[in-house]
Amino acid sequence: MDNKKNKLLIAILILVIIVVILLVILVNYKKEQNSNIDISQKPKERYTKIKEKYESNEFTFTTINTENLMSIYLNKYKDNISNNLEQAYNMLDEDYRNQKFGNIEEFRRYIENNKETILDTRLISYQTETNGDINRYICLDENGNYYIFDEKAIMDYTLILDTYTIDLPEFIEKYDRATEQQKVALNINKFIQAINDKDYKYAYNCLADSYKNNYFKTQAEFENYAKENFYANSTVAYSQFDTQEDVYTYSVILTNRETKEQMNKTFIMQLGEETEFVLSFNR
């Protein structure tokens, strides 16, 4: 009886060994069929082997440089203004957002006025500055619009949409070093940027009170005038500069970016404390 038990145990043990051997052979066979990738190879070499074995799979290895990153950030903003306006609003720098829009409804109106231009925009240049743990990317598109990304870490950033709503440290430093003539030019440029941006609230607030009282008693009146008498998107060329006591006069040429049509404007400006100013212009 014991002899029979021993034989049965030996038979079971042999069977188990055979099954284990077969499983090992099967696993190794599958590994051989599915992958001949040597992990010691460089990524590009491994990619080549994958491609050889799976012709239907395509992978692209892309180095994320600053230019690519700025495009990713801008495209995320574009996607949000089309599909998630609240998220686009929350992407904005808080101080900037509160000063320029105040609430999401004002932002919605801004997007309605500028959506087509924003969706078609293409960045053409940028500069990078570092302040402590923040990387600032100041980007410019082909229409002269700014997109300023303040980045704490990759994909952790806030956005500013212009250089006139709040005075950035870079602007203040430049302004402090400028002559009176240069300051007047910088301020005219702010005003024209706002007109290009259809930010009539900012542009209206630049006007001297006496000028508003004489010609534009309300922002709506000024907005109607600006739409009829300024180009939708213009560049500025500076011509004749004159000064009389604390009043500065600067003649400029505005050029329509699309049609290249031109008009002459003369701005009269008074400079205030720090970066403050008021202006008027010939109608």
Describe the protein.
This protein is of the alpha+beta class. The chain folds into two domains: 66-161; 179-281, Nuclear Transport Factor 2, Chain: A, CATH 3.10.450.50. Helices cover 51% and strands 23% of the residues. It contains eleven helices and eight strands. The protein has helices at residues 2-34, 43-53, 66-83, 85-91, 94-100, 104-120, 169-177, 180-196, 200-206, 209-215, 219-229, and strands at 123-131, 134-141, 146-153, 156-160, 234-244, 247-256, 262-271, 277-281. The strands form two sheets. A four-stranded antiparallel sheet has the order 1-2-3-4. Strands 5-6-7-8 form a four-stranded antiparallel sheet, covered by helices on one side. Helix 8 (180-196) packs antiparallel against helix 9. The chain is elongated, with a radius of gyration of 32 Å.
Helical segment count? 11
Mean pLDDT comes to 84
Strands of the widest sheet, in order across it, are 1-2-3-4
CATH topology of the largest domain: Nuclear Transport Factor 2, Chain: A
Instruction: Label the CATH architecture of the largest domain.
Output: Roll
Largest sheet: 4 strands, antiparallel
**Low-pLDDT ranges:** 33-57
- Sequence of secondary-structure elements: HHHHHHEEEEHHHHHEEEE
User: How many strand segments?
Assistant: 8
Q: Beta-strand level of the residues, as a percent range?
A: 15-25%
Gyration radius, rounded: 32 Å
What sort of overall outline do the alpha carbons produce when their principal axes are compared?
elongated
Structure class: alpha+beta
Tell me the helix content: 40-55%
